Amino acid sequence: MKNRVIVLMGPAGAGKSSVASYIEEKWGIPQVITHTTRAKRIGETDGVDYYFESKASFETKHFLESVNYGGHRYGSSIEGLKRGFEKAPFVSIVLDTKGGQTYEERLGEQAWLWYVTVSNVAELRSRLIARGDDEKAIVQRLSSAEFKRDLALPKAFENKALVIKNDDWEKTKQAIDAQLSKEQND
Ligand SMILES: Nc1nc2c(ncn2[C@@H]2O[C@H](COP(=O)(O)OP(=O)(O)O)[C@@H](O)[C@H]2O)c(=O)[nH]1
Ligand SMILES: Nc1ncnc2c1ncn2[C@@H]1O[C@H](COP(=O)(O)OP(=O)(O)O)[C@@H](O)[C@H]1O
C-alpha cells in the first residue's frame, strides 16, 4: 500500500482530534504529532497531543510547513511525518486549512483531505467550554481571523475534500467507517 495521509481540518471544536483518536483506535491509523507554542490544555500530554515548544525550541525544527493560528505557532515536521510512516502506511494529521493546502500541493494524491464541521456554529463554543478550555483562550480563539477563515470549506477544496458533518458522534463514526472500509476494498 502506498503511503497516504488523512489531513483533518475544520474549526476549533468541530471534532478533528476526536476523529483522529477514533481512526487510530478503531482503524490503526496513527496520528502524526505536530509542534506548537501554545500552552498545554488540561488533559493534554507532551508528545501525544502535541510537541509543546518554547518560541526558541520551535525555531530549531525542520518544518514541512508552519503557520500562525490564534496568536500561536504550529508546525508539522518532516521527521514527524517520517516517524508516522514508519508505524503505518496510512496516517492522519490535524492541520488548519492553510497547512492542508500546503500538504495538498506537496503530496498531491497522497493527501486525503477531510473537513470536519457542524451545522450550528454556536455548538462550537459550547464544545470548547465542555472540553474545559480556559475562558480567555476561548474568547481569543473564537475572535481570531484563522478561526473565522476555517469556519468554511476553502473554495480550493470544493469537490476535493470529504466533508464530515459531526453533529451526532454515532453517525460520524458510521460515516467514517463507511469511508475507510470502502478505501480498504478499493
Ligand atoms: N498548519 C498547521 N496547522 C496545525 C498544526 N498543528 C495544529 N494545527 C491547527 O492549528 C489549529 C489550532 O489547534 P489547537 O490549538 O489544537 O486548537 P483546536 O482546533 O481548538 O483543537 C487547528 O486548526 C489545528 O488543526 C500544524 O502543524 N500545521
Ligand atoms: N459529535 C459530537 N457531539 C458532542 N460533542 C462532541 C462531538 N464530537 C466531539 N465532541 C466533543 O467536543 C469537544 C471538541 O472536540 P475536539 O475533537 O477536541 O475538536 P477539535 O479538535 O476540532 O478542536 C471535545 O470535548 C469532544 O469530546
Automatic annotation (TrEMBL):
Descriptive protein name: Guanylate kinase
Keyword Magnesium set for record: no
PANTHER family: GUANYLATE KINASE (PTHR23117:SF13), GUANYLATE KINASE-RELATED (PTHR23117)
Domain called Guanylate kinase-like: residue spans: 3-181
InterPro entries xrefs: GK/Ca_channel_bsu, Guanylate_kin-like_dom, P-loop_NTPase
Family according to the record: Belongs to the guanylate kinase family.
Gene3D superfamilies from the UniProt entry: P-loop containing nucleotide triphosphate hydrolases
Domain of life: Bacteria
Reaction(s) catalysed (UniProt annotation): GMP + ATP = GDP + ADP
SMART domains hit by this protein: GuKc
